[in-house]
Amino acid sequence: MDNLRIRQATADDIDNLCVLIFEHGPNPWNHLPSVEVTAHLQQIADGSVSALLAERGSELLGFISYQHSRHFARYQPPARCGQEHAYICEAVTHRAVAGQGLGSRLLKQVVAALAEQGVSDIYIDRHEENAASAGMMRKAGFVEIETYADPERRSNGSRRTTVCCLRLHV
């Protein structure tokens, strides 16, 4: 991954992020409804969503989007009940660099950025059978905490979602 630059996405990057995820993200395991994903990425403009991207020259190779949340409150430890946590929303790499560790590298840097912001708990989810995502999450230290039926989001395979968590502070 020579000449790779990793940086925070800006509002000017939103259109390219949309192109990348809709061209290189679809697979049997990903739930990518275009209206919702586009609306999510549009929130980079107002700062309610962040994204770390990787590029070589002017070519966008991948990104991970994330945000502060309370959506996973039911999984929070009692000592942090009601406390804000983080959710890693979308992760995608260009097919030309798939399997070369870029997703893991971006994920580790997102975790580091969230740790610097004082976040204690980070959540991420995936299709239960998405082995590539499971490996990337495991490498970054995420632990599976629940798998549940999710037929509305998961139309293939087991039709189940697995939620994973990384606890930065115990």
Automatic annotation (TrEMBL):
Q: Where are the transmembrane segments?
A: none
GO molecular function annotations of the record: acyltransferase activity, transferring groups other than amino-acyl groups
Full protein name: GNAT family N-acetyltransferase
Keywords from UniProt, A to Z, are: Acyltransferase, Transferase
One of the Pfam families matching this protein, by short name = Acetyltransf_1
Q: Would you say which domain of life the source belongs to?
A: Bacteria
**Whose protein is this, by species?**
Pseudomonas leptonychotis
Task: Please give the SUPFAM superfamilies that the UniProt record associates with this protein.
Answer: Acyl-CoA N-acyltransferases (Nat)
Q: Which residues form the N-acetyltransferase domain?
A: 4-170
